[in-house]
Amino acid sequence: MRKEKWTVFLVISAIIAFLVISIYLIDSINKTVNNIIQPIVQANSGISTQVAEILHPTPTIRPDPITIIHAIQPLARLETIQYSVEKVITGETGQGLFKTFVGDKLLFIAHGTVIAGVDLSKLSLDHIQERDGGLVISLPEPEIFIASLDNEQSYIYDRQTGIFTKGNPQLETEVRRAAEKEIEAAALQDGILKLAKQNAITYLTNFLRDLGYDHVIVEQQ
User: Fold this and answer.
1) Would residue 67 count as lying in a domain?
2) What is the four-CA torsion angle of 66, 67, 70, 74, rounded to 10 degrees?
3) The pLDDT value given to residue 217
4) DSSP 8-state secondary structure symbol assigned to residue 179
5) From 76's CA, which of 102, 144, 184, 199 has a CA 20 to 30 Å away?
6) Element (H, E) at 162
């Protein structure tokens, strides 16, 4: 009976020893493999990074330290209204029979600003008269001062290119130019100049009354 117990004890001890040795060997093998593979993985990662930098380089911006100012012009603009406009512009090229292969089409969401008012530099003494104890001012015609695209808020919503093309860079440039014109046209169609005139008349009338002129007439030239 003791012999059988001793035999069972030896078998169990042998199994435990085998498991411990196996675990130790597996751990050693894993460490060895990792030591071999790790440099390869790091090298591959470095190569992938270099390839990515070659295929998609990060742009480097270096402004020239020399600045040339061509002209300085004094302004006397009375800005009386500002429009914030959103416009959807579609640009496309190569949309014929082969558009699947060489076509390029983009949907551009344009955000822009249009500012209008009156240029007071066009106002001379001939446009200011005293009449019946009051002051009569003939204002210049209202005009658009700024019609610009907000590049931070404007973006390409969707672009579809053909199989053999990555897109025409000039297409986006042309779309942005068209967007500025469309934004200005939308503001004009909505009556921005009319509102600019009304606001200018109201502002100057109140301003001159505050200076002591009880009777003020502001009219268009």
Assistant:
1) no
2) -150
3) 79
4) H
5) 184
6) none
Lookup: tokens for 173: 């440039």
- C-alpha distances (whole Å) from 61 to each of 21, 23, 64, 81, 170 are 61, 56, 10, 36, 21
Pair of tokens at residue 185:
């046209």
pLDDT the model gives residue 11: 46
Residue 71 forms part of a structural domain: no
C-alpha span between 217 and 209 (Å, rounded):
10
Number of structural domains in the chain: 2
Pair of tokens at residue 160: 């579809």
**H or E element, residue 123:** none
Q: Are 190 and 87 in contact (CB under 8 A)?
A: no
**For residue 99, what are the CA distances in angstroms to 93, 105, 107, 161?**
8, 9, 16, 8
The string of pLDDT tens digits covering residues 75-94 is: 778 899 999 999 999 988 87
Cα-trace Rg, the chain? 38
Q: Which two tokens stand for residue 161?
A: 């290119």
Token digits for 60? 């480097």
- Judge contact between 85 and 111, C-beta under 8 A: yes
d(CA 88, CA 182): 9
Q: Residue 133: which domain range?
A: 77-220
Q: Which residue has the tokens 């200076």?
A: 211
Cα distances (angstroms) measured from residue 116 to each of 50, 72, 92, 200, 201: 51, 21, 32, 10, 14
107/56 same-domain check = no
